[in-house]
From TrEMBL:
Signal sequence coordinates: none
Superkingdom of the source species: Eukaryota
UniProt feature coiled coil, ranges: none
Species name: Nothobranchius pienaari
Protein name: Si:dkey-4c23.5
Amino acid sequence: LTDSTIYVWYFNNQTLDLPKNQNKHIIFNPVSSHHAGYYSCAVATPHCVNSSIKVLTVKSGGRSITILNIIKLIVLLLIP
């Protein structure tokens, strides 16, 4: 990959809108519980190479806070 490679980042299956200079990395400074969730990225090429999904867990006050998509799944299963 070259320096001009364009990366597309996803958070909980939604595209993240990042500054051009933060294209290769995601930086949270400071990190907080709303950053917890599922992250993946893709390389914008004709072949669109996708990464595997990784989970970011944020610990706050000794408690583990993880945003999961279980609620979405339950809602989808309940809709006929």
